[in-house]
Amino acid sequence: MFNFFKQVGDYAKEAVQAGRYIGQGLSVTFDHMRRRPVTVQYPYEKLIPSERFRGRIHFEFDKCISCEVCVRVCPINLPVVDWEFDKASKKKKLKHYSIDFGVCIFCGNCVEFCPTNCLSFTEEYELCVYDRHELNLDNVAMGRLPYKVTQDPMVTPLRELVYLPKGVMNPHGVSPSERRAGLFPSEILEQAVKDSENSSEA
Ligand code: SF4
Ligand code: SF4
C-alpha cells in the first residue's frame, strides 16, 4: 500500500514538473509573439547596404591605363591586366581586364590605389553561382552598372536599424505597432518632392 502511494506521489510530482516545463516553453513562445520580426523576407525584402559597403567591383575600361598598380597592391595579385604596347601612341593599350570574385577578399586595396579611379565598389552582394569559375568576371561583366535594391519594384528595401524608434538599438523589445524613427525610401522620395515644391513656390 505504501509503495502505491509513493508511486502516486512521484507521478504527481513529475506531472507538476512537466507542467512547469511546458509553461516555461510557452512563456518564451508568447513573449516572441509580441515582438517585432527581425528577419528579412529574402528575396522579397532586402537590406539596403551601407554607403561604404564593399560589394562587386565596378570597372571603367576607358579610364584604365594598364599601370598594374592594382595587381601590385592586391595581397594575392588577383587582377589580370592584359595589355599590348601600341607603337603609334607609344602607350600601353588595354585588351582585357578581369578579377576573380571567388578569390577576392574585398580588401579594397585595388580601389584605393588605382590612379585613375576606374575601380569602385558597388552595393552588389548577391554573388551566388553554381560554378565558382563564373565569379571570374571580365571587363564587360565588371563594367555592368550595379543592381540597386531601391530601384527594384519587386523588392521591399529595408534598413532595419534606421527604422527603429529613436535611441533603440535592439529590435527585440519593440512592438510591431510602434512608429519607426526613420523613413522608408518611398517616404524619403515623397518628402523630397514636397520640399522641392515648397522651395519652388517660395
Ligand atoms: S579588393 Fe583586394 S583582394 Fe580583391 S582584387 Fe582588390 S586588392 Fe585584390
Ligand atoms: S590600377 Fe587602375 S588604371 Fe592601373 S591597371 Fe589597375 S585598374 Fe587599370
Question: What this model shows, in words?
Answer:
The chain has six helices and seven strands. The protein is α+β, with helices and mostly antiparallel strands and 202 residues long. It has a domain at 57-148: Alpha-Beta Plaits, CATH 3.30.70.3270. The strands form three sheets. It has a three-stranded antiparallel beta sheet with strand order 3-4-6. A two-stranded parallel sheet has the order 1-7. The longest helix is centred in the N-terminal third of the chain and has 32 residues, at 2-33. The protein is elongated, with a radius of gyration of 29 Å. Bound molecules: iron/sulfur cluster (2 copies). One iron/sulfur cluster binds at residues 73-76, 78-79, 99, 104-110.
**CATH T-level topology of the domain at 57-148:** Alpha-Beta Plaits
Query: Ions, cofactors, ligands: which are bound?
Result: iron/sulfur cluster
Helix-and-strand structural type: alpha+beta
Radius of gyration: 29 Å
Count of beta strands: 7
Uncertain stretches: none
Backbone shape: elongated
Q: Mind describing the biggest β-sheet? A: 3 strands, antiparallel
> H/E order of the elements?
HEEHEEHEEHEHH
CATH class of the domain at 57-148: Alpha Beta
Beta content comes to: 15-25%
If you average the pLDDT, what whole number results?
86
Helix tally? 6
End-to-end span in angstroms? 96 Å
Q: Strands across the major sheet, in which order? A: 3-4-6
Helix content: 25-40%
| CATH architecture descriptor text of the domain at 57-148 | 2-Layer Sandwich
